[in-house]
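Dear colleagues,

As part of the handover before I leave the project, I'm documenting each prediction I ran so the next person doesn't have to rerun anything. This entry is a single chain, and its sequence is reproduced below.
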Amino acid sequence: MLISARAKQDGMALLKPHLQQGNAQSSGKVVIGTIKGDLHNIGKNLVALMLEGAGYEIKDLGTDISSETFIVVIKSDKPDILALSALLTTTTPSMKQTIEAAKEAGLRDQVKIWVIRCPGRNS
């Protein structure tokens, strides 16, 4: 799976300039990250690659991202979509915490929130 993900990433790097030439207008802006307590990024990376291939601007925050960081980035970057990723069942409550933080900050109606739950072998 890792080799396949790297091959897709390398392929997208080659195709990206050609895709951008044919699509001058962005499909939207996406902020994506793996939630606090989770260091897994394969699922997040695959989703980001597919969205990028579809013409979205991607800001990848990486892994182990706190609710506070997501809120700061929503305020500063004003994305159309916030994509929260997790593999570990034990970290999925952080997704709810991030969604609640967006509500408390008055941002929930300004951004669509996608939950990317990547099931592992033991999920």
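Residues 69 and 90 are 20 Å apart (CA to CA). Residues 2-22 form the longest helix (21 residues).

All the best with the project,
I.
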